[in-house]
Amino acid sequence: MAGYIYMVGLSAGAFLFSTLVYVFNIRRVSGEGTVAAPAVGLADGAAFERERLEQVGKLALFTALVTLLGALICIWLDLGHPERVWKLMWQTSFRSIMGWMIWCYAAYFILLLVELWLAMRPDLVARSDRSVLARFLTFGRRDVSVAAVTADRRLLRILGSVGVVLAIAFHGSVGALFGVVAARPYWNSALTPIIFLAGALLSGGALLTFITAIWGPEPGSEIHRNLMRFLGQIVLGLLALDVLLEWAEFSIGLWNASPGESASLQLVLFGPYWWAF
Predict the structure, then answer these.
(1) How far apart are CA 116 and CA 160, in angstroms?
(2) What is the pLDDT of residues 6-56, one digit of tens each?
Protein backbone atom coordinates (compact mmCIF):
# COMPACT_ATOMS: atom_id res chain seq x y z
CA MET A 1 0.00 0.00 0.00
CA ALA A 2 2.82 2.43 0.83
CA GLY A 3 4.39 1.74 -2.57
CA TYR A 4 1.07 2.46 -4.29
CA ILE A 5 0.61 5.77 -2.45
CA TYR A 6 4.17 6.86 -3.20
CA MET A 7 4.15 5.92 -6.89
CA VAL A 8 0.78 7.46 -7.63
CA GLY A 9 2.12 10.66 -6.07
CA LEU A 10 5.19 10.47 -8.30
CA SER A 11 2.91 10.11 -11.33
CA ALA A 12 0.72 13.07 -10.42
CA GLY A 13 3.75 15.24 -9.62
CA ALA A 14 5.62 14.37 -12.83
CA PHE A 15 2.50 15.01 -14.90
CA LEU A 16 1.90 18.40 -13.30
CA PHE A 17 5.48 19.33 -14.21
CA SER A 18 4.74 18.46 -17.86
CA THR A 19 2.01 21.11 -17.84
CA LEU A 20 4.70 23.78 -17.47
CA VAL A 21 5.53 23.07 -21.12
CA TYR A 22 2.25 21.96 -22.65
CA VAL A 23 -0.32 24.03 -20.72
CA PHE A 24 1.45 27.07 -19.28
CA ASN A 25 3.77 27.37 -22.30
CA ILE A 26 6.96 28.03 -20.30
CA ARG A 27 9.68 28.83 -22.85
CA ARG A 28 12.69 30.17 -20.98
CA VAL A 29 14.62 28.33 -18.27
CA SER A 30 16.70 31.32 -17.20
CA GLY A 31 17.51 34.85 -18.18
CA GLU A 32 19.84 35.92 -20.96
CA GLY A 33 22.24 33.34 -22.25
CA THR A 34 19.86 30.42 -21.86
CA VAL A 35 20.07 29.55 -25.52
CA ALA A 36 23.51 28.15 -26.20
CA ALA A 37 22.62 27.90 -29.87
CA PRO A 38 24.07 29.55 -32.93
CA ALA A 39 23.15 33.22 -33.33
CA VAL A 40 19.53 33.13 -34.43
CA GLY A 41 16.59 35.49 -34.46
CA LEU A 42 14.33 35.92 -31.46
CA ALA A 43 11.63 33.66 -32.85
CA ASP A 44 14.16 30.95 -33.72
CA GLY A 45 15.76 31.30 -30.29
CA ALA A 46 12.39 30.85 -28.56
CA ALA A 47 11.72 27.79 -30.70
CA PHE A 48 15.16 26.41 -29.77
CA GLU A 49 14.41 26.89 -26.05
CA ARG A 50 10.96 25.39 -26.39
CA GLU A 51 12.46 22.35 -28.13
CA ARG A 52 14.75 21.80 -25.13
CA LEU A 53 11.93 22.22 -22.62
CA GLU A 54 9.69 19.92 -24.65
CA GLN A 55 12.23 17.16 -24.16
CA VAL A 56 11.65 17.58 -20.43
CA GLY A 57 7.90 17.57 -21.09
CA LYS A 58 8.19 14.22 -22.87
CA LEU A 59 10.30 12.82 -20.03
CA ALA A 60 7.68 14.05 -17.54
CA LEU A 61 4.82 12.36 -19.42
CA PHE A 62 6.78 9.11 -19.76
CA THR A 63 7.70 9.19 -16.06
CA ALA A 64 4.06 9.82 -15.14
CA LEU A 65 2.90 6.85 -17.23
CA VAL A 66 5.53 4.41 -15.89
CA THR A 67 4.96 5.36 -12.24
CA LEU A 68 1.17 5.11 -12.69
CA LEU A 69 1.58 1.57 -14.04
CA GLY A 70 3.84 0.79 -11.07
CA ALA A 71 1.22 2.14 -8.66
CA LEU A 72 -1.56 0.05 -10.24
CA ILE A 73 0.61 -3.08 -10.08
CA CYS A 74 1.29 -2.38 -6.38
CA ILE A 75 -2.41 -2.06 -5.56
CA TRP A 76 -3.30 -5.16 -7.58
CA LEU A 77 -0.67 -7.18 -5.69
CA ASP A 78 -2.02 -5.80 -2.40
CA LEU A 79 -5.68 -6.53 -3.12
CA GLY A 80 -5.22 -9.69 -5.16
CA HIS A 81 -7.37 -10.99 -8.05
CA PRO A 82 -6.37 -8.43 -10.71
CA GLU A 83 -8.60 -10.33 -13.18
CA ARG A 84 -11.59 -8.75 -11.41
CA VAL A 85 -10.53 -5.23 -12.32
CA TRP A 86 -13.46 -4.94 -14.75
CA LYS A 87 -15.82 -5.04 -11.76
CA LEU A 88 -14.29 -1.81 -10.48
CA MET A 89 -15.30 -0.12 -13.73
CA TRP A 90 -18.72 -1.60 -14.46
CA GLN A 91 -20.01 -2.18 -10.93
CA THR A 92 -18.84 1.10 -9.39
CA SER A 93 -20.62 2.63 -6.42
CA PHE A 94 -20.45 6.36 -7.05
CA ARG A 95 -21.20 6.98 -3.38
CA SER A 96 -17.66 5.72 -2.71
CA ILE A 97 -14.56 7.92 -2.99
CA MET A 98 -12.65 4.85 -4.18
CA GLY A 99 -15.25 4.31 -6.90
CA TRP A 100 -14.61 7.81 -8.21
CA MET A 101 -10.85 7.20 -7.96
CA ILE A 102 -11.09 4.18 -10.27
CA TRP A 103 -12.75 6.23 -12.99
CA CYS A 104 -10.24 9.06 -12.47
CA TYR A 105 -7.36 6.60 -12.85
CA ALA A 106 -8.85 5.13 -16.05
CA ALA A 107 -9.39 8.58 -17.59
CA TYR A 108 -5.93 9.73 -16.47
CA PHE A 109 -4.26 6.62 -17.93
CA ILE A 110 -5.93 7.12 -21.33
CA LEU A 111 -5.10 10.83 -21.25
CA LEU A 112 -1.42 10.09 -20.52
CA LEU A 113 -1.22 7.66 -23.45
CA VAL A 114 -2.77 10.16 -25.87
CA GLU A 115 -0.62 13.06 -24.62
CA LEU A 116 2.60 11.03 -24.83
CA TRP A 117 1.70 9.92 -28.36
CA LEU A 118 0.99 13.49 -29.47
CA ALA A 119 4.24 14.74 -27.91
CA MET A 120 6.27 11.90 -29.48
CA ARG A 121 4.57 11.82 -32.90
CA PRO A 122 7.17 13.98 -34.74
CA ASP A 123 9.95 11.80 -33.27
CA LEU A 124 8.13 8.63 -34.32
CA VAL A 125 7.69 9.99 -37.85
CA ALA A 126 11.40 10.90 -38.00
CA ARG A 127 12.33 7.31 -37.06
CA SER A 128 9.63 5.56 -39.11
CA ASP A 129 12.01 4.87 -42.01
CA ARG A 130 14.42 3.03 -39.70
CA SER A 131 12.04 1.34 -37.26
CA VAL A 132 9.01 -0.84 -37.93
CA LEU A 133 7.71 -0.15 -34.40
CA ALA A 134 7.99 3.63 -34.88
CA ARG A 135 6.21 3.33 -38.23
CA PHE A 136 3.39 1.33 -36.61
CA LEU A 137 3.06 3.77 -33.69
CA THR A 138 2.49 6.71 -36.05
CA PHE A 139 -0.87 5.02 -36.89
CA GLY A 140 -0.63 6.43 -40.38
CA ARG A 141 -0.33 10.07 -39.26
CA ARG A 142 2.98 11.17 -40.76
CA ASP A 143 2.20 14.80 -41.42
CA VAL A 144 4.76 16.92 -39.56
CA SER A 145 3.99 20.21 -41.26
CA VAL A 146 3.81 23.37 -39.15
CA ALA A 147 -0.01 23.26 -39.26
CA ALA A 148 -0.14 19.62 -38.12
CA VAL A 149 2.36 20.13 -35.28
CA THR A 150 0.55 23.29 -34.17
CA ALA A 151 -2.74 21.35 -34.10
CA ASP A 152 -1.07 18.66 -31.97
CA ARG A 153 0.22 21.29 -29.53
CA ARG A 154 -3.22 22.85 -29.29
CA LEU A 155 -4.71 19.45 -28.45
CA LEU A 156 -1.89 18.81 -25.97
CA ARG A 157 -2.77 22.04 -24.19
CA ILE A 158 -6.45 21.08 -23.94
CA LEU A 159 -5.68 17.56 -22.71
CA GLY A 160 -3.06 18.90 -20.29
CA SER A 161 -5.62 21.32 -18.81
CA VAL A 162 -8.05 18.43 -18.27
CA GLY A 163 -5.18 16.38 -16.86
CA VAL A 164 -4.40 19.03 -14.23
CA VAL A 165 -7.94 18.63 -12.87
CA LEU A 166 -7.70 14.82 -13.00
CA ALA A 167 -4.27 14.66 -11.32
CA ILE A 168 -5.40 16.95 -8.51
CA ALA A 169 -8.71 15.09 -8.18
CA PHE A 170 -7.35 11.56 -7.95
CA HIS A 171 -4.39 12.29 -5.69
CA GLY A 172 -6.41 14.67 -3.56
CA SER A 173 -9.02 11.94 -3.20
CA VAL A 174 -6.32 9.51 -2.02
CA GLY A 175 -5.48 12.05 0.69
CA ALA A 176 -9.19 12.44 1.46
CA LEU A 177 -9.50 8.65 1.94
CA PHE A 178 -6.91 8.89 4.71
CA GLY A 179 -8.14 12.21 6.06
CA VAL A 180 -11.70 11.03 6.80
CA VAL A 181 -10.57 8.07 8.95
CA ALA A 182 -11.49 9.36 12.42
CA ALA A 183 -10.04 6.21 14.04
CA ARG A 184 -6.56 7.35 12.94
CA PRO A 185 -5.98 10.79 14.50
CA TYR A 186 -2.63 11.16 12.72
CA TRP A 187 -4.42 11.05 9.33
CA ASN A 188 -7.69 12.68 10.36
CA SER A 189 -6.97 16.24 9.27
CA ALA A 190 -8.24 18.69 6.66
CA LEU A 191 -4.57 19.24 5.77
CA THR A 192 -4.08 15.62 4.65
CA PRO A 193 -5.29 16.01 1.02
CA ILE A 194 -3.23 19.21 0.65
CA ILE A 195 -0.13 17.53 2.09
CA PHE A 196 -0.62 14.65 -0.37
CA LEU A 197 -0.72 17.08 -3.30
CA ALA A 198 2.32 19.05 -2.10
CA GLY A 199 4.22 15.79 -1.53
CA ALA A 200 3.25 14.57 -5.01
CA LEU A 201 4.57 17.73 -6.65
CA LEU A 202 7.76 17.60 -4.59
CA SER A 203 8.55 13.90 -5.14
CA GLY A 204 7.48 13.93 -8.80
CA GLY A 205 9.52 17.07 -9.46
CA ALA A 206 12.57 15.64 -7.68
CA LEU A 207 12.36 12.40 -9.68
CA LEU A 208 11.99 14.33 -12.94
CA THR A 209 14.98 16.51 -12.03
CA PHE A 210 17.06 13.38 -11.35
CA ILE A 211 16.01 11.80 -14.67
CA THR A 212 16.70 15.05 -16.55
CA ALA A 213 20.17 15.18 -15.01
CA ILE A 214 20.93 11.82 -16.68
CA TRP A 215 18.82 11.79 -19.85
CA GLY A 216 18.08 15.49 -20.35
CA PRO A 217 19.11 17.53 -23.40
CA GLU A 218 22.87 17.76 -23.99
CA PRO A 219 24.23 16.74 -20.54
CA GLY A 220 27.07 19.00 -19.44
CA SER A 221 26.13 21.85 -21.77
CA GLU A 222 25.04 25.35 -20.76
CA ILE A 223 21.47 24.46 -21.77
CA HIS A 224 21.56 21.44 -19.45
CA ARG A 225 22.97 23.43 -16.52
CA ASN A 226 20.35 26.17 -16.91
CA LEU A 227 17.61 23.56 -17.14
CA MET A 228 18.82 21.80 -14.00
CA ARG A 229 18.97 25.16 -12.19
CA PHE A 230 15.41 25.94 -13.32
CA LEU A 231 14.04 22.57 -12.14
CA GLY A 232 16.09 22.72 -8.94
CA GLN A 233 14.64 26.10 -7.99
CA ILE A 234 11.10 24.77 -8.45
CA VAL A 235 11.85 21.67 -6.36
CA LEU A 236 13.45 23.82 -3.64
CA GLY A 237 10.32 26.01 -3.49
CA LEU A 238 8.11 22.90 -3.27
CA LEU A 239 10.33 21.51 -0.51
CA ALA A 240 9.85 24.73 1.47
CA LEU A 241 6.06 24.46 1.01
CA ASP A 242 6.07 20.81 2.10
CA VAL A 243 8.15 21.58 5.20
CA LEU A 244 5.74 24.41 6.07
CA LEU A 245 2.72 22.09 5.83
CA GLU A 246 4.43 19.37 7.87
CA TRP A 247 5.41 21.94 10.51
CA ALA A 248 1.79 23.11 10.70
CA GLU A 249 0.55 19.53 11.08
CA PHE A 250 3.04 18.52 13.79
CA SER A 251 3.22 21.75 15.78
CA ILE A 252 -0.56 22.19 16.05
CA GLY A 253 -1.11 18.48 16.72
CA LEU A 254 1.38 18.51 19.60
CA TRP A 255 0.31 21.90 20.96
CA ASN A 256 -3.41 21.15 21.23
CA ALA A 257 -2.63 18.12 23.45
CA SER A 258 -5.50 16.04 22.01
CA PRO A 259 -4.62 12.61 23.48
CA GLY A 260 -5.08 10.56 20.29
CA GLU A 261 -3.33 12.93 17.91
CA SER A 262 -0.56 13.89 20.32
CA ALA A 263 0.20 10.23 21.08
CA SER A 264 0.34 9.43 17.34
CA LEU A 265 2.76 12.25 16.66
CA GLN A 266 4.91 11.30 19.65
CA LEU A 267 5.15 7.76 18.23
CA VAL A 268 6.12 9.09 14.80
CA LEU A 269 8.82 11.34 16.26
CA PHE A 270 10.14 9.31 19.21
CA GLY A 271 8.56 5.82 19.06
CA PRO A 272 10.46 2.57 18.44
CA TYR A 273 10.03 2.96 14.65
CA TRP A 274 10.88 6.67 14.42
CA TRP A 275 13.68 5.78 11.95
CA ALA A 276 11.13 4.33 9.50
CA PHE A 277 9.16 7.60 9.52
Answers:
(1) 11
(2) 898 899 999 988 888 888 877 655 544 333 333 334 344 444 445 567 778
Report the C-alpha gap between 40 and 151 in whole angstroms: 25
Going by C-alpha positions, the residue among 76, 78, 75, 99 that lies closest to residue 88 is 99
Q: What is the pTM of this model?
A: 0.81
How far is 256 from 258, CA to CA, in rounded Å?
A: 6
User: What are 13-26's pLDDT values in tens digits?
Assistant: 999 888 888 888 77
Say which CATH class 2-247 falls into.
mainly alpha
Q: Following DSSP, what letter does each residue of the chain receive, concatenated?
A: -HHHHHHHHHHHHHHHHHHHHHTS----SSSTT---SSS--HHHHHHHHHHHHHHHHHHHHHHHHHHHHHHHHHHHHHH--GGGHHHHHHT--TTSHHHHHHHHHHHHHHHHHHHHHHHHHHHHHHHTTT-HHHHHHTTT----SHHHHHHHHHHHHHHHHHHHHHHHHHHHHHHHHHHT-TT-TTT-STTHHHHHHHHHHHHHHHHHHHHHHHHSSSTTSHHHHHHHHHHHHHHHHHHHHHHHHHHHHHHHHHHS--HHHHHHHHHHHHSTTTTT-
